[in-house]
Write a structure and sequence with these properties.
Blueprint: E1 4-11, H1 25-35, E2 39-49, H2 50-55, H3 64-69, E3 75-84, E4 87-95, E5 99-106, E6 116-122, E7 131-137, H4 142-159, E8 166-171, H5 180-183, E9 190-191, H6 192-197, E10 214-219, E11 221-229, E12 242-249
Parallel strand pairs: 1-2, 7-8
Antiparallel strand pairs: 1-12, 2-4, 3-4, 5-6, 6-7, 8-10, 9-10, 11-12
């Protein structure tokens, strides 16, 4: 029976390097493959952009989530959040294992920031219940974040059984470190880096991380190792660092 799980979360900055100078999707795909994670939570994933497709020769013909998943992660889900004239972007989950159900929940606090919760149920070999995975990208402002965290709490209480394994990962924009007040104290999750290092990880900017924006929360797992992937070559790909965790099912 499979009991170990390797997950990662990454805000991919819509596939561009710092200051939107270069398309980094091919390097990004290579680096994600090298991580060898079972499930990857991605934020700022472009589903379509007509202008970029016309301007850049190396822009993929497929949506970014399909291009990145390729043959490594046969199942994927995409939650469209921000829609504009040229296209749209949102969150994505790539998985080695079958995604049997998924939904994208709009948690936008106002019309200037489109945000969503991408919730997938994943079937793992011989597990007695499905793994619940929620990919998040919260807003920049405290009031909106509070509303979105409350929406996340209500969503979990309504749709995720207490005994089911759960992973919530993504860009929380939470430099105030408020999220754990709800997710740890009220929902009995644990943050991977708090468990292994005593405090949530620094993840932004990727060249030399100072701010603690990204998270991996888990329930029903023992975290063996949590790692921040920063510096070269990651710092050329996005302004966020990659977070990963290796876990054992309890």
């Amino acid at each position: 029976m499979l009991d170990k799980l390797h997950i990662a979360t990454y805000n991919i900055h819509k596939g561009f390097s710092h200051f939107n100078r270069r398309v980094m999707l091919h390097q990004l795909r290579d680096n994600l493959r090298a991580l060898d994670a079972d499930i990857i939570f991605l934020q700022e994933v472009v589903g379509q952009h007509k202008g970029h497709a016309a301007r850049f020769e190396n822009w993929p013909r497929n949506p970014q989530y399909e291009f990145l998943a390729d043959s490594i992660w046969p199942d994927f889900a995409y939650g469209k959040n921000a829609v504009y004239d040229e296209g749209h972007h949102g969150n994505a989950i790539l998985s080695r294992y079958p995604i049997v159900r998924w939904d994208n929940v709009d948690v936008s606090a106002h019309r200037f920031e489109s945000r969503g919760l991408l919730h997938c149920e994943i079937l793992l070999p011989e597990w007695p219940e499905n793994l619940h995975c929620i990919c998040v990208h919260l807003g920049l402002f405290k009031r909106g974040q509070s509303q979105q965290l409350q929406a996340l709490e209500q969503h979990i209480e309504r749709l995720v059984p207490r005994h089911a394994p759960l992973v919530i990962a993504g860009d929380f924009n939470d430099w105030r470190e408020l999220a754990s007040g709800i997710l740890v104290k009220r929902l009995e999750l644990m943050e991977a880096f708090e468990l292994t290092g005593g405090r949530v990880a620094r993840s932004f900017p990727s060249v030399l991380p100072l701010f603690r924006l990204d998270r991996i929360y888990v329930r029903g797992f023992h975290v063996e190792k949590a790692q921040v992937h920063q510096g070269h070559p990651w710092s050329k790909i996005s302004d966020h660092a990659v977070l990963s965790a290796q876990m054992i099912r309890r």
